[in-house]
Amino acid sequence: MTENFNGQIEDIKFAFVGDGHNNVARSLLITGALLGMDVRIAAPTALRPPADVIVKAHELAVASGARVLVSDDPEQAVAGVDFIYTDVWVGMGDSPEGWDTRVPLLTPYRVIPELMKATGNPDTKFLH
């Protein structure tokens, strides 16, 4: 992110949109909190990061000055961000039987042009 942002790392605002329970979302949440960033996770309630990870992120944010938001509202999470990050909905090795529940659950969290526009920032970058 730093190579595509003109400013200090603690001024970066980014949102992860999708499966907040996966390792990428959890890593971004903790790292952003450590670095003092404005980090947001938009995920269905059933796929939020584990409670202990959210608590840890808030604790780190107190020390670093980070801002942390975990929400089920993708538009709220992306408002004003510099970067939107997402990951796969179904990983390699995941059972196809789970797709029937995961895909409908995650469909509102697609990163599509309308969600990019919802940032209100024409310079928002997409990461995956």
From TrEMBL:
- Alphabetical list of InterPro entries matching this protein: Asp/Orn_carbamoylTrfase_sf, Asp_carbamoyltransf_Asp/Orn-bd
Q: Which GO terms describe its biological process?
A: citrulline biosynthetic process; L-arginine biosynthetic process via ornithine
What Pfam families is this protein classified in?
A: OTCace (PF00185)
Q: Keywords for this entry?
A: Transferase
The highest taxon in the source lineage is Bacteria
Q: SUPFAM superfamilies, alphabetically?
A: Aspartate/ornithine carbamoyltransferase
MF terms per GO, please? amino acid binding; ornithine carbamoyltransferase activity
User: Where is each Aspartate/ornithine carbamoyltransferase Asp/Orn-binding domain found?
Assistant: 10-128
PANTHER family registered for this protein in UniProt: ORNITHINE CARBAMOYLTRANSFERASE, ORNITHINE CARBAMOYLTRANSFERASE, MITOCHONDRIAL
What name does UniProt use for this protein? Aspartate/ornithine carbamoyltransferase, Asp/Orn binding domain
The species this protein belongs to is: Lentzea waywayandensis
